[in-house]
Design goal:
This protein is an all-alpha fold and about 70 residues long. It is about 55% helix and about 0% strand. Helix 1 (about 10-25) packs across helix 3 (about 55-65).
Length: about 70
C-alpha cells in the first residue's frame, strides 16, 4: 500500500529511543541547512527505523564528536 513498516518491535523501538535520549542531553537548539533530497532520504530512513529524524541527526553528531565515526572531506 506504499506504507513503511518498521522492522523493530515496540520494545526494540523503545530501547533505541531511550538510548538516544540518554546519550545526548538536548539543551541547545541549532539551525541547519540540508538539501531537500538529503532531508527526504533521512526522513524515509527514520520511518524505516521507527525513530524521529532529529534523533538520528543528534546521534550522528554525538558519534562523530566521540570519535566513533569519521567523515572524509
Amino acid at each position: 500500500a506504499g506504507e513503511f513498516v518498521s522492522i523493530f518491535s515496540e520494545n526494540e523501538k523503545k530501547k533505541l529511543m531511550d538510548a538516544a535520549a540518554a546519550t545526548v542531553q538536548k539543551n541547545k537548539n541549532i539551525n541547519i541547512r540540508l538539501s531537500s533530497k538529503d532531508l527526504l532520504k533521512l526522513k524515509a530512513k527514520s520511518v524505516e527505523k521507527g525513530i524521529p529524524y532529529q534523533t538520528i541527526i543528534s546521534s550522528l553528531v554525538h558519534q562523530y564528536t566521540e570519535g566513533k565515526i569519521k567523515v572524509d572531506f
